[in-house]
Amino acid sequence: AQRPFPVIQKVVASMAHLQEEKLRLQEELLALQEKLAARESEEIAASVQLRGQVENLKANLREQAQEIGRLRSEMGGTDAEKHRDLLAAENERLRQEMKAREGELRELRRQQAACRDCTHLQENAGLQERLCQLQREAEEARAKLAELELEVQQKTNRLAEVELRLKDSLAERAQEEERLSRRLRDSQETIASLRAQPQQIKYIIKTVEVESAKAKQALCESQSRNQYLQEQVGMQRQVLKEMEQQLQSSQKTAAQLRAQIAMYETELERAHGQMLEEMQAMEDEKNRAIEEAFSRAQVEMKAVHENLAGVRTNLLTLQPALRTLTHDYNSLKRQVRDFPLLLQETLRSARAEIGQAIEEVNSTNRELLRKYRRELQLRKKCHNELVRLKGNIRVFGRVRPITKEDGEGPEAVSAVTFDADDDAVLHLLHKGKQVSFELDKVFPPQASQEEVFQEVQALVTSCIDGYNVCIFAYGQTGAGKTYTMEGTSANPGINQRALQLLFSEVRSKAADWDYAISVSVAEIYNEALRDLLGKEPQEKLEIKLCPDGSGQLYVPGLTEFSVQSVEDINKVRH
Ligand code: ADP
Ligand code: MG
């Protein structure tokens, strides 16, 4: 892009120049550094060479010294001494030479050191300084460029202003031209009217026409100009119209915004008012609350004061009570302290008392037991006496209720009758004749199993006391033997009831007696004795007399099960 201002161009050119200069200086610097490096390597090589020479000389010296030593040991005498002197001189010379070489080496090193601040380095430093300066200058030039660009901007703005003003003046000119064209039209009208006038004024017309030709030309010119200006005006009007439209739209927006603002303002005012009202209300409420709280607090305060007075009087009355309480407390404390001792003592005496009481009870128990045993003996004796008095063999009759098998009609019912006054008598109607029997007791059909059992119950006691007991049922089939002895499960007969009683009696005496109960079941049928619990029920057994002379009978080989309860027996039977 073409720079519009020469100053900027100049600055840019100088910057480019400076850049070039910088590059060139950097190149020079590089070349100088290379040269310096080359010289340094040369010097290092020289010093190495010199060091090598010095080393050689030292080696020579060492050899000479060895030679001297060797000669000294070999020769001895004056020749050797001479040789030694010679060698010493040689040695001395060599040492001098070495010193000289060392001096040269030092000189070279010094030179090398001196070269550290030689002209090249100085030049280098100068160039670098210059480079810095140039960079600074470039910076300044850039700042200046920015300033200039700002200026250009300002000028462009001013140009826009000027254009605006030019437009205004053009508008003015357009107005002027319109005015002129109006005047031209007027004058043309005047000419036309004059033409319409009579001949005497034709001269005037002619002159006017001559003038008019000139005027026409001018008019033409001005019309063309007018044309141009009108075009311009048209354009301007277009612009104006657009601007007006813009203005209108922006006015509309402004109106809208104003309306909105007004709306917001009213809203704001309303809110403000509301807020003020609320604040007022809150303030009122606060004041009211404060007043209320104050009055309440006063009332409470009064009550508290009264309470305080009451509490004070209470306190005065409580003090003596407290004193007595303290006294009580102290005595209680003493008691508590003494309590363990007291307790121990009490326990000791209680234990002694209890021991004594136990002893007493024991002795009473023993006494009672003794008495009980005596009573038991007495009872046994009485029982046996009773049994004896009742008769060792007793015969009871039981008449069962009439069954279907007995037939129907009045005969069946009246076959057996009882004596109302004697329960031991039974009347039997046999072939039209009444026969009477006397037994120990007769049970009528309505007698229960319980009643029948009560009559044989004493036999169980005899059995426990060690006597042999036998209950024997006799009668024709269907007379009721099984019913009386076995009964039903709901209404058991003598067997079950006797066993129940036997075991309960044994249990109640278990503390003092040892009992062993065993069960055997045998059948005597057609003179044959059979073991019903045995493994071979067909085997025939025999009844024998006990060999101990007691006169007791026993059946050798009869199966015996020892049992503990009625249930055990029932299990054995099944
Ligand atoms: P047995 O054993 O003597 O042959 P049962 O005991 O079998 O005779 O009795 C025969 C019938 O009579 C059975 O049906 C039995 O229930 C009934 N029976 C016997 N004695 C009574 C009684 N005292 N009360 C009611 N029914 C009885
Ligand atoms: Mg039977």
Short synopsis of the structure:
With 574 residues, the chain is mainly alpha-helical.
Q: What is the CA-atom radius of gyration, in angstroms?
A: 83 Å
- Widest β-sheet, arrangement of strands: 2-3-4
Query: Main sheet, how many strands, which sense, barrel?
Result: 3 strands, antiparallel
What's the N-to-C terminus distance?
137 Å
Order of helices and strands: HHHHEHEEEEHHHEEEEEEEH
Shape: elongated
Number of strands: 12
The amount of helix comes to over 70%
Task: Output the number of helix runs.
Answer: 9
Strand percentage: 5-15%
Determine the structural class based on helices, strands and strand pairing: mainly alpha
Low-confidence runs: none
- Identify every distinct bound molecule in the structure, by name, code or SMILES: adenosine-5'-diphosphate, magnesium ion
Mean pLDDT: 85
How is this structure best described in words?
The chain is mainly alpha-helical and 574 residues long. It has a domain of 332 residues. It has 9 helices and 12 strands. The strands form 5 sheets. A 3-stranded antiparallel β-sheet has the order 2-3-4, with no helix packed on it. A hairpin with an 8-residue loop joins strand 8 and strand 9. The longest helix is centred in the middle third of the chain and has 189 residues. The chain is elongated. The structure holds adenosine-5'-diphosphate and magnesium ion (MG). The site of magnesium ion has 2 residues, from helix 7. It is found in: Cytoplasm, Cytoskeleton. Keywords: ATP-binding, Coiled coil, Cytoplasm, Cytoskeleton, Motor protein, Nucleotide-binding.
